[in-house]
Design brief:
Protein name: histidine kinase
Shape: rod-shaped
Order of helices and strands: HHHHHHHHHHHHHEHEEHEEHHEEH
Keywords: Kinase, Membrane, Phosphoprotein, Transferase, Transmembrane, Transmembrane helix, Two-component regulatory system
Organism: Streptomyces maoxianensis
Structural class: alpha+beta
Strand order of the largest sheet: 2-4-5-7-6
EC number: 2.7.13.3
Largest sheet: 5 strands, mixed
InterPro entries: 2C_sensor_his_kinase (IPR050980), HATPase_C_sf (IPR036890), HATPase_dom (IPR003594), Nitrate/nitrite_sensing (IPR013587)
Length: about 650
């Protein structure tokens, strides 16, 4: 069941790794990036909100400028309406004043158009104001009707009032979001604009009534409605205005002109029955004009307050925007600094541990093992103390301690292995020497018996026993070679021919009858190398005999190659794969220790060790044959230091002369 569960878990798809998750620096960066991104998102929302407030403040400031400019145009239209209504009512003395006022109205219209074209307010407000200018443009027809003397008082008054109401409604700007004082100020400004329009409308309508001397038709009802609207807008203003703004309005209604106008209004109230009203239109106009101008000044004062408020809101939004941006930059810098410091605080100790571990693996352990292996018997094999990583976090200290424990354990194991190898080598060497001594005595006795024996059959058996003892001696010498010991001194003075060396090697193998010395060119080998070269050849020949069919011979070739001399041992066996050839050549070249190899390859290590001592090169290659037979050929290249060139050249000269 557990096995099935493990199989199920192993088949589960792996989650995709995060970018940078493969390194500690990347993981620290990812861990810190998540809260940093959240903080930056919050900061970004604050930046967006403050940016919206700043933009709204600027837009409100632009709206206020348009509102005040629209109120200037409204003021001029109100004056033109009142004068025109008086003129239509019969007061011809207003003729010149009407012409002058029309010019002032056109000038205010031109300035308003220029400000509207410059932008600065919201698109909706600008569009509403452009639409509101259509009734103003239509007043040109009303002016022509007045000039022609065909105008009537009520329609003319209604046309001007429609144009003025449209401008006042379109100029009602919305305040900046969430700012109550600014909203109240804008509401108070709008309420005062409506109240001022009611006062101006009363001025214009009564101007015509006083010029005509009485109310006609529904003019008295219109008069009462206008007064009711004025009172309603003034109450709305008092609810929204500040104490200073309320005081300014109270002061406007407390002037002598305002009190005088109030007296004229009371007289007008007595003319509800259509009786004649004895009020000078000029005095009424001048008194009410002063009041209307005072109300416009209060409007401009409120507009200045609104502009100041929007400026403060914009400045506050700018400072807060800068603060949020600075906070975002600070968060980013701190996050990067923390990521760098955290990564360095982790990676530096780890890199130090990695460097120490690499140093131990590359130099420390090999040096300790070499020192242990070179120690003499009886020396105390104590590991050298290793470097310590500077104090760091508790986890790194534990990791460093664990690495040091691993190092000490490895050195301890190396010490045990070195002792074991040394004991093994000494045992092999001792066993090999003992066998050598016994076999030498045995060969001596066999030689004596061979000399004394005259029976051919017994003599043949002695020869077989001699051959067997010779092979046993070679095996004992192989033990000494594997143990790293020098072979017993069996040197020849002078030089020995290559054929004699080959024959000596053949004499040390079991199936020597299958070995054919096919073509061995003349060559002279120095006597100091004969024993080891003969041993090397015997190992290769016996290996070829073992791995080739009994019906196939093993062939020996020898030839000169410049100053070197080469030998080849050729078999026609089953052959070897490319991988097996590569492993075997690595063993022959000394690139692999015999302690990790199977026992059937010990002959390769003996050959490799002897080749290294002689300075020769041994390599296995596939046998190249015309019949396509498989097999392996062992090539031995002897260096020029082992070949007597003078003897070889002399032999060549004699051969040529004899020929």
């Amino acid at each position: 069941m557990i096995r099935n569960l493990r199989g199920t878990l192993s088949r589960q798809p792996a989650l995709p790794a995060l970018p940078g998750w493969g390194t500690i620096r990347g993981r620290v960066a990812v861990v810190l990036a998540v809260p940093t991104c959240l903080l930056l998102v919050v900061t970004g929302l604050g930046v967006v909100d403050r940016g919206a407030d700043w933009s709204a403040a600027r837009e409100t400031a632009g709206r206020v400028e348009l509102v005040l400019k629209a109120q200037d145009l409204v003021r001029e239209l109100q004056r033109e309406r009142g004068l025109t209504n008086g003129l239509v009512g019969g007061a011809e003395e207003y003729r010149d004043d009407v012409d002058v006022q029309r010019a002032r109205t056109d000038t205010a219209r031109t300035g308003f158009d220029a400000l509207l074209a410059a932008g600065g307010a919201g698109a909706d407000t600008a569009d509403d104001l452009r639409d509101a200018l259509s009734p103003v443009a239509a007043l040109a027809d009303v002016r022509r009707t007045v000039d022609d003397g065909a105008a009537q008082r009520a329609p003319t008054l209604a046309a001007y009032t429609e144009a003025i109401d449209g401008l006042i409604s379109a100029a009602a700007a919305e305040p900046a979001r969430g700012d109550r004082p600014l909203a109240n100020a804008m509401g108070a400004l709008q309420a005062l604009a409506r109240a001022t329009e009611a006062v101006a409308l009363e001025r214009g309508s009564l101007n015509g009534v006083f010029a005509a001397g009485r109310f006609k038709g529904s003019e008295f009802l219109d008069f009462t409605e206008v007064r009711a609207d004025r009172l309603a807008f003034l109450r709305q203003y008092s609810e929204l205005a500040t104490s200073a703004q309320q005081s300014a309005l109270t002061a406007a209604f407390a002037t002598s002109d305002a009190r005088r106008a109030d007296g004229y209004e009371k007289r007008a109230e007595g003319g509800a029955d259509g009786s004649r009203l004895a009020v000078d239109p000029g005095r009424w106009w001048s008194s009410m004009t002063v009041l209307v101008d005072q109300l416009h000044r209060v409007q401009r004062q409120i507009g200045a307050d609104v502009r100041g408020r929007t400026d403060r809101i914009g400045d506050d939004a700018t400072r807060q925007l800068g603060g949020f941006i600075g906070l975002g930059v600070l968060i980013l810098v701190v996050a990067i600094a923390l990521a760098v410091l955290s990564a360095r605080s982790i990676t530096r100790p780890l890199m130090a541990l990695a460097d120490e571990a690499d140093s131990v693996a590359r130099t420390g352990l090999p040096a300790a093992v070499a020192r242990i292996q070179e120690a003499e018997a009886g020396d105390e094999l104590v590991p050298e103390p290793t470097r310590r990583v500077p104090d760091s976090a508790r986890e790194f200290t534990r990791l460093a301690t664990a690495l040091h424990n691993v190092e000490h354990t490895a050195i301890g194991l190396a010490t045990e292995q070195a002792v074991l190898r040394r004991n093994t080598s000494e045992s092999l060497a001792s066993l090999g020497r003992r066998n050598q001594a016994l076999l030498s005595r045995q060969l001596g006795l066999i030689t004596v018996l061979e000399r004394q024996e005259i029976d051919p059959d017994a003599l043949g058996e002695l020869f077989e026993l001699d051959h067997l003892a010779t092979r046993m001696r070679r095996n004992a010498e192989s033990l000494l070679v594997l143990a790293g010991e020098e072979l017993p001194p069996r040197t020849w003075s002078g030089v020995v021919t290559a054929t004699e060396v080959v024959q000596s090697a053949i004499a040390e193998v079991e199936q020597y009858q299958r070995v054919a010395v096919t073509d061995v060119q003349d060559g002279r080998i120095r006597g100091r190398a004969v024993a080891e070269l003969s041993h090397l050849l015997a190992e290769l020949i016996e290996n070829a005999l073992v791995f080739s069919p009994p019906s196939y011979p093993v062939e020996i070739y020898g030839w000169r190659d410049g100053g070197d001399y080469c030998l080849a041992v050729v078999d026609r066996g089953s052959g070897m794969t490319d991988e097996e050839l590569a492993r075997s050549n690595a063993r022959l070249a000394g690139r692999e220790t015999f302690l990790i190899a199977p026992t059937r390859y010990l002959g390769h290590y003996v050959v490799g060790t002897l080749a290294a001592r002689l300075g020769a090169q041994v390599e296995l290659r596939p046998t190249q044959g015309q019949d396509g037979a498989a097999g392996v050929t062992a090539y031995i290249a002897l260096p020029a230091t082992l070949v007597d060139v003078s003897q070889t050249q002399s032999a060549q000269t004699q051969s040529v002369t004899a020929g």
